[in-house]
Amino acid sequence: MQKEFLEVKKLYRNSEEFIGKTVHVAGWMRTSRISKKFGFIELNDGSFFKNIQVVLDEEKLDNFKELSKLPISSSLLIEGELVKVDNPKNPIEIQATKIEIEGVSDSSYPLQKKRHTLEYLRTIAHLRPRSNTFSAVFRVRSVVAYAIHKFFQERNFVYAHTPLITGSDAEGAGEMFRITTLDMKNPPLTEDGKIDYSQDFFGKETNLTVSGQLNGEIMALAFRNIYTFGPTFRAENSYTARHASEFWMVEPEIVFADLEDNMDLAEDMIKYIITYVLENCPEEMEFFNKFMDKGLLERLDKLVNSEFVRITYTKAVELLQESGHKFDYPVEWGCDLQTEHERYITEQIYKAPVFVTDYPKDIKAFYMRMNDDGKTVRAMDLLVPGVGEIIGGSQREERYDVLMSKIKEMGLKEEDYWWYLELRKFGTATHSGFGLGFERIIMYLTGVSNIRDVIPFPRTPKNADF
Amino acid sequence: MQKEFLEVKKLYRNSEEFIGKTVHVAGWMRTSRISKKFGFIELNDGSFFKNIQVVLDEEKLDNFKELSKLPISSSLLIEGELVKVDNPKNPIEIQATKIEIEGVSDSSYPLQKKRHTLEYLRTIAHLRPRSNTFSAVFRVRSVVAYAIHKFFQERNFVYAHTPLITGSDAEGAGEMFRITTLDMKNPPLTEDGKIDYSQDFFGKETNLTVSGQLNGEIMALAFRNIYTFGPTFRAENSYTARHASEFWMVEPEIVFADLEDNMDLAEDMIKYIITYVLENCPEEMEFFNKFMDKGLLERLDKLVNSEFVRITYTKAVELLQESGHKFDYPVEWGCDLQTEHERYITEQIYKAPVFVTDYPKDIKAFYMRMNDDGKTVRAMDLLVPGVGEIIGGSQREERYDVLMSKIKEMGLKEEDYWWYLELRKFGTATHSGFGLGFERIIMYLTGVSNIRDVIPFPRTPKNADF
Fold first, then answer.
1. Which domains does chain A have, with CATH numbers?
2. To probe the interface with A, which of B162, B182, B201, B465 has the most A CB atoms within 10 Å?
3. Tens of pLDDT along B354-407?
4. For the residues B219-225, what does the mean pLDDT come to?
5. pLDDT mean over B13-20
6. What's the confidence (pLDDT) of residue A90?
7. Could you tell me which chain B residue has the CA closest to the CA of A455?
8. Secondary element (H or E) of residue A92
9. Aminoacyl-transfer RNA synthetases class-II family profile domain location, by residue (chains A, B) (predicted)?
């Protein structure tokens, strides 16, 4: 039956083809205004952000009376003529000749026309994708995900599926969730009274991954250029608007490539994504610009046409100190940059996206390449106006000896990294990579300020509903 | 630096553009044959399945001696002239004018030229992507993943990210992994001595998902057509060649669509994927056809050009009974079809892919649409030669009352399904969907017979290495 029903998106995009013809559409009644003999239904079929207006004429429809009493969100199968009307915003409508009721909605449907808070809408995550805001957000999310795949695949990158269940806390990037099938009440114990994970499902302690990077490096050192794109987890009790316990990450890794290549790739990717979503979701982006963030389209347009600034951490610290601005956290060389610092650099000093590179080694991960100064590593963060950090990456330490001494210096266990070290033993090569928090870019692109509103079914502390 | 180094894939695909010119490539030495004054290196740069031959001439290279002693898998930066040679299999080679050694490999490199068993290669998962077999498998895996996204996005499906951490065992599709941050040794207990999950991270018992379908239905009933594509988990102690604890699934869900639409979609998708991979990975597919499964290309070609058969379960049982074939498990109406039955139907009876529909309700899930006969449900399985079942799906029960009584009949808890039921209350609609085990299709396309060899870092009972 589906082929029979044209997508509303097609009616809008190729309206010339259908005007004057009989068309069939199927969708949900978003609103209706029906008088005794005449009426209008705003129908949304899910294929498109915009509704199509359906005109009801009592003389043409047997069930006109029934339709006039129908609760909103009822689903309808509609036959009618597509006609052109003199309305620049909605230049087409359907004059119905037959309307079949597919599913009558209950009048208690909670998404009535009045405005709801985003907080309330989170409690009806099974219905909120039917609202304008979430219809736009989740479609943009889908289109951006595809843009990311398209960007990398067109450049011959291999999409690498790195594991979510991990037996090592190798990156130490954050708190982890334990995975187990042991009886929680009577877990097996070893002789010295510890939990005996050798009897657990995987024969050892396992957790949910915090990053696919180390596995990604394996794949890159075979395929030259790879990317991961999948779920990642953090068991941190942070109730902020920017943190979720389950989120998606994109992690490209490139070989025979240094930090400059890494920044080029990040800049190209961001510009590609923005351009793609502007081209493919014009209605949704218009909506966000109007209702979420008035400067959005201008900001994105500017970003696509700007060259990203590249400065060192040392330079950034100097600039912040010279600025005379009073920060909550004073800046000095060696400290990690706070969001207020990052935003000041990108919003006040440069008014453009800024790569900050070569951070002090003590505030960065063990795998980042040591610079000749012995004090800094080849790290990079990309800061963008309105958000702050959106990408973090580095050139990786490719020298076996340097990596080994770093592992020891940081008190990590050599045996946990045996295969990671072997990558440096069997044909090591200069390589680099970065991580993009997928939700961060969606928030940036939509103007939505809470991460709970860009994930269909968010997981946060004390919340795993739906 | 990366832009300097042309991809070997480009040299092969656009060789006319580069012949007679100086090119730079970077890659790993797969093999070498070097005599006193002259030599050959087979270089693989990861961008392409095939190696490029590099010709070494002592008179042109200062470090010829050093190069002649280099262990395989060393990484090299090469400058030289691309020349045409009279060899249909490898029509181009590089006559090196300069070779820089990027990373010397250790001579203990385990992937020496001799053949290794797949079992052994699993123990060096950090190096096996550099072998011909795994280079081909994981590239095909990447290209198929992209083909799936492309197929659905071109048809205006929304890519829906359903959660991996779930608070409900709603589908009951299999054993689950528990996720917890509780102290395993001293978990908090409730007054009646049970584990007090209200003190766990999410405030309740949580597990890793076995299917995104129920959440997918939420999204479909807002967007008409959606698909999920992500990791899925089964905590089952099965040590078979076809089961992994972590694997990827594709689950489209379509609205205003019945089981016929569902089968059309599945058939179109399978044909699209195969056509795409044949076009985009000809070298890899040639390799599989030669070394993994001699009839592979012929079988795939036949499948793309065949019309898939559609029969009911009742008919399938009749055919199996009439066949006179002696099965390990005798067939009678009401039993679940075993792999031997499935393969007999698709390989012996029809010699083509077969959809089997309308299974007995007692062997299928609660959400499948009840037929008017009261005995069967609108389920479908797609069986393909060489594998058996590759897709399972159904039309979903869209009638509130029927679904409710089914939930009660099967002893499920109504409150666990409150939102799933509400989808039938607020504008329900005919809808359908299916699940494709991503690894199954990769195995089918490559001829690889063990699921551990189509996942870069497989998770199976007692194994979460790498």
1. 8-103 (2.40.50.140), 130-175+210-453 (3.30.930.10)
2. B201
3. 999 999 999 999 999 999 999 999 999 999 988 889 999 999 999 999 999 999
4. 98
5. 96
6. 84
7. B161
8. strand A92-103
9. 138-456
pLDDT value of residue B172: 61
Q: CB–CB of A424/A433 below 8 Å?
A: no
Residue of A nearest to B124 (CA): A419
| CB contacts, 8 Å: B149 with chain A | 145-146, 149
- The beta-carbon contacts of A289-296 under 8 Å, at least 24 apart in sequence, are A289/A447, A291/A133, A292/A133, A292/A446, A292/A447, A292/A448, A293/A446, A293/A447, A296/A446, A296/A447
Confidence (pLDDT) at A330: 94
B299 contact partners, CB below 8 Å, separation of at least 6: B385, B386
- Pairs of residues, one from chain A and one from chain B, whose beta carbons lie less than 8 Å apart: 336
Q: Nearest by CB to B162, which of A162, A430, A456?
A: A456
* Probe site for chain A from B219, B224, B248 (most A CB atoms < 10 A): B224
The pLDDT assigned to B89 comes to 82
The mean pLDDT value of chain B amounts to 96
- Chain A residue at shortest CA distance from B141: A159
CB-based contact B165 A245, cutoff 8 Å: yes
- B interface test, pick of A161, A180, A251, A261 with most B CB neighbours within 10 Å: A161
For residue range A359-383, list pLDDT tens digits in order. 999 999 999 999 999 999 999 999 9
- ipTM strictly over 0.95? yes
pTM summary value: 0.97
Query: Cα–Cα distance between A49 and A131 in angstroms, integer?
Result: 10
What kind and span of H or E run contains A296?
helix A296-304
HSE, side-chain direction, 13 A CA sphere, residue A352: 14
Query: Which pLDDT band, with edges at 50, 70 and 90, does B173 fall under?
Result: low
Q: Rounded CA gap, A158 and A123, in Å?
A: 39
